[in-house]
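Section 3.1: Structural characterization of target chains.
Under the original work plan, the team committed to producing a structural model for every single-chain target entering the pipeline before any wet-lab resources were allocated. The record below documents one such target. The sequence was received from the expression subgroup and is listed exactly as submitted; it comprises 142 residues.
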Amino acid sequence: MLAVTMILAGVGLAVALALQAFKENLLFFYSPTQVLAGEPPQGRKIRLGGLVATGSVRREPGELEVLFDVTDNSNTLTVHYSGVLPDLFREGQGVIAHGVLRPDGSFEADEVLAKHDENYMPPEVAEMLAEQGHPVDGARAN
């Protein structure tokens, strides 16, 4: 009986540790409106999604640092990213940026994902835009 109890306690501990590790590495998706409303937890890595605002991409020639605005057509949030942007990144297209909120209220991205073909928009972005009453012409979420 003692051996069975020890095995069950060990399995329970392993499950609890696995769930805790999963919870710490889980990235939640937020729109600019949700971020500005203070929904994301402070100091945690999140995914920010929306459309790259037209005319918002700013970069110094020869530098990898790029700033652009992500919008959900209600609110806009500035994203700072240092690195090479995906080939399909452009204004007016859906993106998801992984990173953290900066103390100044902007977003520091360590990864930027862009749509992969002309009809694709990240499912979270398409759903968020549809919830806010903004139709997504020709996009299908996969």
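The two ends are 51 Å apart (CA to CA).
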